[in-house]
Amino acid sequence: MKTETDNERFxxxxxxxxxALAGGFGAASLEALRPNVTFVISSATAIAFLGGVALxxxxxxSLFHPSTGSLQRFFRxxxxxxxxxGGIAGVIYPLRFVAPAQFPALxxxxxxxxxxxSGVAGLLYLCKRFLDxxxxxxxxxxxxxx
Length: 146
Prior knowledge:
The chain is mostly helical. It has helices spanning 6-32, 43-64, 70-92, 103-145.
C-alpha cells in the first residue's frame, strides 16, 4: 500500500487551507457588499467568513479522503453542489446593484469572460491528455525494456 509522504500531506494542507481562506474571504466580501458599492463589516460578515472556510475545507477534505463508500460519495456531491451554487451566487448576487441600462454591456462582458475561461479550460484539458498519454507511453517503454 502506498503511503503519503510528509511533502504530500503538507501540500494537501496548503491546498485545503489556502483555498478555504479564499472561500471565506469571498463569502465575507459578498455579505459585506452594500448597494453604493461600499463594504460594511459586521458580525454577519464574520459568520459568512467562517461558513465559507468551513464549506471549502469540507469539500477538499472529502475529496482527499480515501473512502469510496456511498455516504462519502454523497458528501462529495453535496459539498460540490454547494460550492457550485456559491460560485454562481458570487457572480449573480452583485448584479442587483447594477443599473438596468448597464445590463447589455454587462452581459456582453460576462459572455466574453465565459468564452475566454472555456478556452483556457479546454487548453488545460488538452495539456492533461497530452501529459497522461506521454506518461502511458513512458510506462510502456519501461516495461518493454525490462
